[in-house]
Amino acid sequence: MSVTDQVDTTGAGAPPARATSVLSLAGVSKWYGNVVAVNDVTMDLGAGVTGLLGPNGAGKTTLLHMMAGFLAPSRGTVTLDGTRIWRNPQVYRRLGLVTEREAVHSFLSAYEFVLASAKLHGLPDPAAAARRAIGLVELEGAQDRRIGTYSKGMRQRTRVAAALVHDPQVLLLDEPFNGMDPRQRLHMMELLHRLGDAGRTILFSSHILEEVEQVSGTVQVMVAGRLAASGDFRTIRRLMTNRPHVFAIRSTDDRALAVALMAEPSVTGVELDRTGLTVRAGDYGAFTRVLPKIALARGVRVRALLPEDESLESVFSYLVEA
Ligand SMILES: Nc1ncnc2c1ncn2[C@@H]1O[C@H](COP(=O)(O)OP(=O)(O)OP(=O)(O)O)[C@@H](O)[C@H]1O
């Protein structure tokens, strides 16, 4: 029996036990004129929840849209269980996408909104499919209220239900946690876990490290269109935290402090110029603990200690260079 045969397209009852699907990208690039948005990305995604992490402009949305069949790759192939996705409506039926920004009509109820999505998919029993999808996101209690009266989290769950109405094996979500408060986030995280545990392939994008860490053990990291790292989150996190840290230091005697710091094992580089002292340290904790002691011993007062490269972009850039 093929994977397609096992999909419950009746829209009724509990989802069946499913075979897992593999979404594969092979040498995928996408360019818009001179802008290379995605650059030679190869990855395989199986059942469970995977985070797609990267700073703004890294190419996450472009990648998700190619996976969902919204965009053609400029080069390479995107396949689901070996079948090309682009211009293949049979495969679209097995995919769901929750886009980053999309208006939900505030005058409709969640039930009406999800029902419309079921009808667009041409499901045989749209009403049953809508009820099942609303049950999956636990919105039954509010399904007949106008969406205009919902919280941000409820609106987002309504959109997830609309994307799940045809019971797809793969669910792609672009920045699903944006603008949610902690409680709404938790609820959405639990939902994604439940869907992943039930055998679906779930990929969600985010530019927030901690967010991905809380939701998924597996991560694909994109930087400037390229896949910078992929696999177990903890291993990648260790790579990120073990990177050299750069500090700008302002003190009453930068020269004396520079000489003293050169002998310090946690310091890997010292630069002194007209603007002040720049220090590279391998171990963030060890360096920040030892600096006040060294300064005190030399009679130097530290006026400012500024980490120079703490932005997410610099963390990601380090990964690309590693
Ligand atoms: N339609 C388009 N025409 C031209 N350039 C585009 C288009 N869409 C995206 N880009 C460019 O492609 C690159 C990747 O954009 P994309 O939206 O995929 O990144 P992202 O990681 O999703 O970013 P964000 O988190 O800000 O949404 C960016 O440089 C962006 O400006």
TrEMBL record:
Gene3D superfamilies: P-loop containing nucleotide triphosphate hydrolases. Pfam families: ABC_tran. InterPro entries: AAA+_ATPase, ABC_transporter-like_ATP-bd, P-loop_NTPase. Keywords: ATP-binding, Nucleotide-binding, Transport. Signal peptide: none annotated. Residues 23-249 form the ABC transporter domain. One of its GO terms (molecular function) is ATP binding. Belongs to the ABC transporter superfamily. This is ABC transporter. It comes from Micromonospora rosaria. The lineage of its organism: Bacteria, Bacillati, Actinomycetota, Actinomycetes, Micromonosporales.
